[in-house]
Amino acid sequence: MQNHSSTAQDSDSAARHARFGALPERIAYEDMVEVKAASPRDPERDAGDSGAGRLLACMAWDLVL
């Protein structure tokens, strides 16, 4: 003999399934991750421009004043 609460849950579950259908299949972690080799370091790009810091500081002061 089922109690009233279990019957109500079953009918609610059936109504949700009829409205929304089933959940999609789970995606494996390996399918979500892409592994790439890192690009080699570029010393010229990493060195930067020594004048760039002064330019940014001047721009910051211009915005404040």
Descriptive overview:
The chain has 65 residues and is mostly helical. The model has no long low-confidence stretch (mean pLDDT 78). The protein has helices at 4-20, 29-32, 43-47, 50-64.
Characterize the largest beta sheet: strand count, sense, and whether it forms a barrel. Answer: none
| Count of strand segments | 0
- Helical residues, percent: 55-70%
Report the span from N to C terminus.
80 Å
Summarize the structure.
By secondary structure, this protein is an all-alpha fold. It contains four helices and no strands.
Key attributes of the depicted protein:
single chain, 65 residues, mainly alpha, 4 helices, 63% helix, 0% strand
List the helices and strands and how they pair.
Elements (H helix, E strand, L loop, with lengths): L3 H17 L8 H4 L10 H5 L2 H15 L1
